[in-house]
Amino acid sequence: GQCVAIDLNLGCPQAIARKGRYGSFLHDETPEAAYDVLTRLRNTLPKEVGVTAKIRLPPTEEDAQAGKLGHEFRFVSPQTIEERVRRLIDCGVDLITVHGRTRFENKVAVGAANWDGIQIATATAREYSGDIDFPVFANGGIEHFSDVQKCFDHTLCSGVMSSESLLEQPGLFDAETIAMNGSGILERQLNYADTYLDYCTLFPPLPGSLGIKGGSFNVARSHLFKILHRYLEEQPDLRSWLGNQEMCKVQQAKELISTLRARYSELDEEQLKMKSSWNDNSS
Taking the complete model, does pTM exceed 0.90, yes or no? Predict the structure, then answer.
């Protein structure tokens, strides 16, 4: 099919991005290189092919004083979200996505998303570009369907995206998948897991994607841990079974899902409500 747009991800905070000096590390430490890439893309690609960028909020002096940035961090201009947005628009980007956290707010250090920062980015993009509808997408802090409208209202953004929460609840943006009782939520998650494994059979993950040992099943394993998280927390033996390297086939994972379904099928709705997993806010 035809390429509609090319996005430069300047938001990745993972260790692999640190090693390769890309993602948020490229934007924080060598921003001019990032802007050069975007400018060249815009100047080279046909106008009908969009150029977009995803960024994080820049670390601040306040973050440094609070001890959030570690000992090796050094500031490189631009240091404010307003400056970052202006530079991106100067590069000719057609859309900006802003994650409301710095690269240091990751994994165990993750905190609440800074929607105020995204609101500033949205206002800056529209004022500086002269386009009152310049598209800015918000990322971060979207854990439940109800968070979507809250984010729109707070940031005045054009669109909302999610990443981590979608790994557990792929139907996060579908209101019909939210208002469910305990058994409905259980079946929803088990069906997600079953459907995902069916796709793995049709389109196997690349061997070695997450290490040589375990082959491509390591990819499936990591997704199943996300999708079934709330129930595996209540069934430690099944959690250990999924984590065991001897589980390396789709059929074995299907058996785990069947076992999980059988265990919870013995519980009525009132018993399910006694479990921490029954509520969509439980994860």
Answer: no
Pick from 200, 202, 193: nearest CA to 167: 193
For residue 97, the 8-state DSSP code is E
**How do residues 120-131 score in pLDDT, each as one tens digit?**
999 999 999 999
CB-facing half-sphere around the CA of 89: CA atoms within 13 A: 20
Confidence label for 216 from pLDDT (cuts 50, 70 and 90):
confident
Burial of residue 44 (number of CB atoms within 10 Å: 0-12, 13-18, 19+): exposed
Instruction: State the distance between the two ends of the chain, measured CA to CA, in whole angstroms.
Output: 37
Distance (Å, whole) CA 44 – CA 268: 61
Is the CB of residue 268 less than 8 Å from the CB of residue 247?
Answer: no
Integer Cα distance of 42 and 51 in angstroms: 6
Q: Provide CB contacts within 8 A for 257, sequence distance 6+.
A: 190, 193, 194, 197, 228
Q: Which residues are catalytic?
A: 12
Which residues, 6 or more positions from 51, have their beta carbon under 8 angstroms from its beta carbon? 5, 6, 7, 8, 38, 41, 42, 45, 91, 92, 93, 94
CA dist., res. 203 & res. 271, Å (int): 38
Taking residues 220-225, report their average pLDDT. Answer: 94
Task: Look at residues 176, 129, 132 and name the one whose alpha carbon lies nearest to residue 158.
Answer: 132
